């Protein structure tokens, strides 16, 4: 059976986890957490990076730092994971969904401005499959209307838009280190902060509302309750697991991108014959090999292909059910304008197995079976 996902594992993780355990500091912000912060700050150029227990929590922190309040509106695509919306709904915001572009599956930047009202407080673009939204246009709109931008870059670590890392354009960027991502700590995430004036507030928020981070740096003699907060920091054992993979980031990326390119090459004839559509990467964006998907003609054909591949011992996966069509989406949000592409394109999309060290023969077998389904 060729699984859809195999969590990344280098074989060295336990060495670092053991070091963390032996350090006698296994709670948050230990040696390996600091190493992860340094790596991410150097890789992205962000003013500050803070590991979190999930990308969901990174998004929740961003919503709090943006001072989202009840009655505010936040614009985002409906084609995304629930956490993108939940982070703002928890603050009492109304979600305003706009349609996506059919080529990248990202929010249509040309529909955002018309969805803005006097209640709009933020825009939350989602970089689907690690391919950048049109951030120049989005930031121009945000600056014009005085809006915050929170990038859901859960799938986009080590992806770039016009040479700049995704997650670093908006006020805040959020990464995921879930087991399905390019780099994993099982469950985990990171908050990227662009403006250094938010760093202290973010540290306090992440540390149960205390200035414990200052205490560990020797800046205060005791840490005290400063503001509301929660426990958003992961244990140093989790960070140790993650750091092992960050040390081998180039190797992991090469493996995934090689698999992505192989799929693309093998399935291009099928796309040229008009049987399927392949992912589109704009020239000014890079591909981090996070995901490889194809698009069937419609939902019925996708479901037939899904069943066919499963019979051949291949486990593909569909993806998001558009949030605006879900019960909570109806309750907490509204769709602005026409749903021209969101539902239609999501119904067609099927993700193929993709992970670090995917065997070449397995990728070839998957592609062969897709071609067999279409009689090619």
Distance between the termini: 23 Å
Note the run of SSEs as H and E.
HHEHEHEEHEEEEEHHHHEHHEHEH
Structural class: alpha/beta
Quaternary structure annotation: single chain
Rg (C-alpha, Å): 21 Å
Number of strands: 12
CATH topology of the largest domain: Aspartate Aminotransferase, domain 2
Strand content: 5-15%
At CATH's second level, what is the architecture of the largest domain?
A: 3-Layer(aba) Sandwich
Question: How confident is the prediction overall: mean pLDDT?
Answer: 97
Assign a percent range to the helix content. Answer: 25-40%
Strands side by side in the biggest sheet: 1-9-8-5-4-2-3-11
User: How would you sum up the global shape?
Assistant: globular
Q: Topology, please?
A:
Layout (H helix, E strand, L loop, with lengths): L12 H10 L8 H14 L3 E5 L2 H11 L7 E5 L4 H8 L4 E5 L21 E4 L11 H11 L2 E5 L7 E2 L2 E2 L6 E5 L12 E5 L5 H8 L5 H5 L19 H12 L1 H24 L20 E3 L3 H13 L15 H6 E3 L6 H7 E3 L8 H14 L3
Parallel strand pairs: 2-3, 2-4, 3-11, 4-5, 5-8
Antiparallel strand pairs: 1-9, 6-7, 8-9, 10-12
Helix pairs in contact: 1-8, 2-8, 3-4, 9-13
């Amino acid at each position: 059976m060729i699984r859809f996902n195999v969590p990344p594992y280098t074989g060295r993780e336990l060495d670092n986890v053991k070091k963390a355990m032996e350090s006698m500091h296994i709670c948050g912000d230990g040696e390996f957490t600091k190493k992860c912060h340094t790596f991410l700050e150097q890789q992205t150029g962000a003013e500050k990076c803070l590991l979190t227990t999930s990308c969901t929590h990174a998004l929740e922190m961003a919503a709090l730092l943006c001072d989202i309040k009840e009655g505010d509106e936040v614009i985002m695509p409906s084609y995304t994971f629930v956490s993108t919306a939940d982070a703002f709904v928890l603050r009492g915001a109304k979600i305003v969904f706009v349609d996506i572009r059919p080529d990248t599956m990202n929010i249509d930047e040309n529909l955002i401005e018309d969805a803005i009202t006097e209640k709009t407080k933020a825009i939350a673009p989602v970089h689907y499959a690690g391919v950048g939204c049109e951030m120049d246009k989005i930031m121009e709109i945000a600056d014009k209307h005085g809006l915050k931008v929170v990038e859901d870059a859960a799938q986009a670590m080590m992806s770039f838009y016009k040479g700049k890392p995704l997650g670093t354009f908006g006020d805040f960027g959020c990464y995921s280190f879930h087991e399905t991502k390019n780099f994993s700590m099982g469950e985990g995430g990171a908050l990227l902060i662009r403006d250094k004036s938010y760093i202290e507030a973010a540290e306090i928020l992440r540390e149960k509302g205390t200035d414990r981070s200052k205490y560990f740096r020797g800046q205060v003699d005791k840490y005290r309750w400063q503001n509301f907060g929660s426990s958003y920091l992961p244990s140093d054992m989790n960070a140790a697991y993650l750091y092992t993979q960050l040390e081998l980031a180039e190797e992991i990326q090469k493996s995934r991108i090689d698999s992505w390119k192989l799929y693309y090459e093998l399935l291009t004839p099928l796309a040229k014959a008009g049987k399927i559509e392949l992912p589109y990467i704009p020239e000014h964006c890079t591909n981090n090999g996070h995901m490889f998907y194809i698009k069937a003609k419609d939902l019925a054909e996708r479901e037939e292909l899904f069943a066919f591949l499963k019979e051949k011992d291949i486990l593909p996966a569909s993806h998001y059910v558009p949030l605006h069509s879900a019960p909570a989406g109806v309750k907490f949000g509204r769709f602005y304008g026409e749903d021209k592409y969101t539902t239609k394109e999501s119904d067609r999309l099927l993700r193929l197995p993709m992970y670090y060290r995917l065997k070449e023969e397995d990728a070839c077998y998957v592609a062969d079976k897709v071609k067999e389904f279409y009689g090619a």
